[in-house]
Design a protein that fits this description.
- It is built from 14 helices and 14 strands.
- With 408 residues, the protein is α/β, with parallel strands linked by helices.
- The protein has 2 domains: 2-146, 2-Layer Sandwich (Beta-Lactamase), CATH 3.30.450; 160-385, Alpha-Beta Barrel (TIM Barrel).
- Strand 5 (89-96) and strand 6 (102-110) form a beta hairpin.
């Protein structure tokens, strides 16, 4: 836009400024600049005292917005900036935001007087200034949204405004409890699903910080469940690559730890991810790939990371008892797992007929509403003390279309 304005006016420099007030002074900051060949005179981010700029004097009416030759204006000649740049021709208009506030100015300047500039050019500048105001207002709203989201996420982390539900993971033949998946739930109202909170945290650059806080909280359950049960925690590749990641596991038994890599995240460097995971895996931690069969990313993770556990996506488990295509794909994954010395966990097991087919296919482990809903740590401890079978533990009355909670 600035380039178009500058070229249309036949001038050397075009810029958008912002009026900024802080405790020290009132300033003009250059937010956008188009000045080919004159970059040494004005750059994005440059800041000047407001009273020393044309922007200030045009806005308060001591200088006109259109000056074909600044030599004709004594007040312009009294300003140091006139001679420093130098400025001989100037055209500038205020940028008004929708709320009526003046954001700053859109201006063009030239070191050569230009007597062809006229009111039509001023009108053109106002059109471009209105266009700029629309874009600036949108950017300011985004900036405000990000700032408010950052405050929300930081508050959640600081106050630990989340809790965990622990969903049982069992062997299928025979039914035997072997571990739990830790599922994060957020307290702030209005309710939002965990993936929405983590997505917002990632958007404002706090995704890893929130994940690490959640991991620390989830691992507290180790001290409350029997030593022969594992806990699976969800982590993104970005979090694994963070330098603080390994520190979260100093005080836990690595042989009871399963790290579940989220399926929907793109991995740019599998070598770096493997290197970051290596110390924990060397101490007995296992790697799990979530949502296998749901998309290409999960298959890439499986092929490049050689996980100990592959979790069959609930979209494949649902209706596997009546859908030959789902059975065929699940059977292929079972064959792959046997050939690569990994294990399959079927997610979203909700009916006894699904369970029967999964057993027939040789899938060794599963989780889902039929085997146990996500529950508080206290309820999970109670489950540990029960005798098999566990099918009576919080069984849903019937299959529901919405499967939130099965493996969220």
């Amino acid at each position: 836009m600035l380039a178009a304005v500058r070229e249309h006016m036949g001038m050397e420099i075009a810029y958008i400024s912002e009026f900024v007030t802080d405790s020290a002074r009132e300033s003009v900051v250059f937010r956008g600049v188009d000045a080919p060949g004159f970059e040494n005179l004005v750059r994005v981010g440059d800041c000047k005292a407001r009273q020393d700029t044309y922007c200030h004097h045009v806005l308060n009416g001591s200088l006109p917005g259109l000056m074909t030759d600044t030599a004709l204006y004594p007040h312009a000649q009294s300003l140091a900036t006139t001679h420093a740049m130098p400025i001989r021709a100037h055209i500038g208009v205020p940028i008004y935001l929708p709320n009526g506030k003046v954001y700053g100015m859109m201006c063009c300047i030239s070191s050569i007087a230009d007597h062809t500039l006229n009111d039509r050019d001023m009108q053109m500048m106002k059109v471009f200034a209105d266009m700029a105001a629309h874009q600036i207002n949108r950017d300011l709203r985004i900036k405000t949204d990000i700032s408010e989201a950052s405050v929300r996420i930081e508050r959640i982390i600081e106050r630990e405004q989340f809790k965990f539900a622990y969903q049982p993971i069992m062997t299928l033949a025979p039914l035997c409890l072997v571990g739990f998946e830790a599922l994060c739930r957020f307290a702030p109202e209005p309710y939002r699903s965990p993936d929405q909170w983590f997505r917002e945290a990632a958007r404002v650059g706090l995704g890893t910080k929130l994940e690490l806080a959640a991991v620390r909280a989830a691992l507290r359950a180790f001290s409350a469940i029997p030593d022969d049960l594992f806990i699976s925690v969800n982590v993104s590749p970005e979090t694994v690559l963070n330098s603080a990641f390994i520190e979260q596991f100093c005080d836990c038994s690595k042989s009871r730890l399963v790290l579940e890599i989220t399926e929907h995240t793109k991995v740019d460097d599998y070598g770096a991810l493997l290197a970051a995971l290596a110390p924990l895996r060397a101490q007995g931690a296992r790697l799990s790939i979530d949502d296998a069969g749901a998309g290409f990313a999960s298959l890439s993770h499986i092929l490049n990371l050689s996980p100990e556990i592959v979790k069959l996506d609930m979209g494949l488990t649902k209706a596997i008892d009546i859908d030959p295509a789902r059975r065929a794909l699940a059977a292929a994954l079972v064959f792959f797992a046997k050939d690569t010395q990994s294990q399959i966990i079927a997610e979203g097991v909700e009916t006894e007929s699904e369970l029967a087919v999964l057993k027939f296919l040789g899938i060794p482990m599963g989780q889902g509403y039929l085997l146990g809903r996500p529950a508080t740590l206290a309820s999970s401890k109670l489950l540990c003390e029960m005798e098999p079978p566990w099918l009576a533990f919080e069984v849903p009355p019937a299959r529901k279309p919405a499967r939130n909670g099965s493996s969220t």
